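On to our target:
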Amino acid sequence: MADDLDRRCVNAIRVLAVDAVEAAGAGHPGMPMGAAPMAYVLWTRFLRHYPGNPAWPDRDRFVLSAGHGSMLLYALLYLSGYDLGLEDLRRFRRLGSRTPGHPEFGHTPGVEATTGPLGQGFANGVGMAIAERVLAGRFNVPGEEPIVDHHVYAIVSDGDLEEGVAAEAASLAGHLRLGKLVYLYDDNRISIEGPTSLAFTEDVGRRFEAYGWHVQAVEDGTDLDAIEAAIRAAREETERPSLIRVRTHLAEGSPNRRDDPAAHGNPLGPEEARRTRENLGWPADSAFLVPEEVLDRFRAAGARGAEREAEWRARFEAYRRRHPALARAFEDALARRLPADLAARLPRFQVGERVATRAASGRVIQVLKEAVPELVGGSADLAPSTETYMAGEPDVTPGSAGGRNLHFGVREHAMAAALNGMAYHGGVRPFGATFLVFSDYLRGAMRVSALARLPVVYVFTHDSIALGEDGPTHQPVEHLASLRAMPGLTVIRPADGPETAAAWLLALESDGPVALVLTRQKVEVLAREEGADPLEGVRRGAYVVAGAGEPADLLLLATGSEVALAMAARALLAREGVRARVVSMPSWELFEAQDEAYRRRVLPPHITARLAVELASPFGWERYVGERGRVLGVDRFGASGSLEEILPAFGFTPERVAQAARRLMATVGG
């Protein structure tokens, strides 16, 4: 039964949100004020968390998908006793503060996900719930108390539910029957432009029932007991994810701005802030005031978390004694430790062997499934084409206790956002696959991968117009340049099987997202010169595969399948006495991370005749070819035709490359 102290605790959240937004001169006070009651009930009566150890493995996860309401989360973290003080709240939205405008993973203690782009947090939670199920299936021992057994909670907004990525993720969650997923829907019916009825009039509850969710409604968002009863019922529903629609009011507690769209993204203003404090029973002119009894109530929940964490650790130590190998594997998975001999275990490829890099990647994955048991992933209904299915491993299915192969369906955006959620959760190494051209469909989530430094592996196949008959709708042109423009994303386009194996190793070693860009067509394993090590070469981003030990008149730079094309053109030029050095550049990002001395060794400044060859937009290559160099690229959309027709039509043959090189040298020489 709610008491007066409960009411004061709820109002403390509201006042802190109002005061922080006023101090910043910007922000979103309305959502935290309306959602404060449901957040209070969740955090003090249900959420298993411990401020003293925010990374406790079996804690419940909480995602504020409505990231614009970040002061709701910061207030909860401060009040609960996380390493966040009132001074941090006073510096809300200031440069360098630990309370940025939207929550950022890894920046603020207790923040489980970077949210703000609407719908992303919703889909992240689905990935977290998948990770929980996978880990429970792998590590829990039947007949014993589980070591993986927690819920994923989120507060979502109408904006989240309008975004397509949330619809994709909700459909997937319902299909998989993720019963550990409990979402509170902040149904305040206000958007930036006005009432949500301007554009959003569907019956959300019926939609989610159709997805296979357990749906409840709380019509009074200030009724703490009703909220508690709904969360309890959601926890008891183990076969379906749960959505609780809570009817709230924007800026609840404000005498004059309640349900005012202006309160969504603007401060209340000094006078209305004063009146709001007074209306909520706070001293009107005292900002950031938190009564001791309020802190005591919140921090008692933190103390209970300490007890739960200690109990879990004791249970895990007993588990370690009974199952030392499983316990060690659990800790290795959480720490992202790789086998010391992983490089030696990767598949080998013979010089002259013709194998598509997507197929080479598939061979690597079949090795990795044994060497890295926490590897989990799938594709957007393209596993046969992307060659990403782990043969012999179980699927993640509605009735499964675990699994490793994920079937995301044709849901690229939700796939990527769920992969982010799996990476946030930890204990698994997530990857997802689709065609490179469809990276456009998941770009929003991939950007968050890069922003949050999440170790997600993206497998993009069918990497150029050379995929052939499917035509320009499926032939990527601008996509490599677009991916390379994204800060924090490492793009690797390997030339052949050995570079593909190296790329996978580096992807698993990376602490951020990596995009592997792979061919549909077969490419020949290169005959590299002695000393040209593909593993070291990929690790450094670029290296000389031919012509390193002799003077050169010309540099031929290429990535992916075009490295073999450059090698063939080099042979033609050699007959004419032209000395060409071929440089494979699988990753611009990794090359830029090398010291200047290495970069100058690979690309000697005195060689100004430089020709870059890539079956993609030439945009960006100017940094490597310089003012006097040229790029043989693709500056228009592709066409439908066989590989044998497409490449000559677009000028990608050894003869045409050699011809472009001759013209370049004539220009440079002149």
Q: What stands out?
A: The chain is about 45% helix and 15% strand.
